[in-house]
């Protein structure tokens, strides 16, 4: 290809590639179908339990780890429900890829232990309320995750804004 740049080494080629932010979230509901969401003090919108994938772990391991770190609960992440892609924006200079896993159903009276200084609150929100509180990008993930839970088919969605 005539327009393709030439690289002196594999390292130069790798350095030229776009980076992607990766994160994993947990879809958790109670027996009444309410969604567990959490609120960080440094963000306006509510979010899923979850976080960025650490070096050396895969997205499923990240969801399992984040569940424990952010709630005190222990459970292995279940099925992959949705993958959300977000293009670069004013908020993020690289694309973001967010994996949403099924962490199942917990009773609403299950004790939740939030990490001090990271999360300020949690709530079990009915789906319409959760959709409003999560904001557009996370709401898209929630809708996709619930649909995947219902029919067993994971979804791939493109978010309109980062919501990372």
From TrEMBL:
Required co-factors: Mg(2+)
PANTHER family, alphabetized: GDP-MANNOSE MANNOSYL HYDROLASE
Alphabetical keyword list: Hydrolase, Magnesium
All copies of domain Nudix hydrolase, residue ranges: 19-147
InterPro entries: Nudix_hydrolase, NUDIX_hydrolase-like_dom_sf, NUDIX_hydrolase_CS, NUDIX_hydrolase_dom
Protein's UniProt name: Nudix hydrolase domain-containing protein
Keyword Magnesium set for record: yes
One Pfam family cited in the UniProt record for this chain: NUDIX
Family assignment from sequence similarity: Belongs to the Nudix hydrolase family.
The organism's place on the tree of life at top rank: Bacteria
């Amino acid at each position: 290809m005539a327009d393709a740049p030439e690289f002196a080494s594999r390292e130069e080629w790798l350095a030229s590639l776009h980076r992607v932010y990766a994160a994993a979230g947990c879809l958790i509901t109670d027996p009444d179908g309410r969604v567990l969401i959490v609120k960080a003090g440094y963000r306006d919108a509510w979010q899923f339990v979850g976080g960025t994938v650490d070096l050396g772990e895969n997205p499923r391991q990240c969801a399992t780890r984040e569940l424990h770190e952010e709630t005190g609960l222990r459970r292995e992440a279940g099925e992959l429900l949705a993958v959300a892609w977000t293009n670069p924006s004013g908020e993020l200079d690289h694309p973001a890829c967010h994996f949403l896993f099924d962490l199942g159903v917990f009773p609403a009276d299950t004790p939740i232990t939030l990490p001090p200084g990271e999360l300020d609150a949690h709530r079990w929100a009915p789906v319409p309320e959760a959709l409003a509180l999560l904001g557009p990008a996370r709401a898209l993930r929630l809708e996709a995750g619930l649909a995947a839970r219902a029919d067993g088919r994971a979804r791939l969605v493109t978010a309109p804004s980062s919501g990372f």
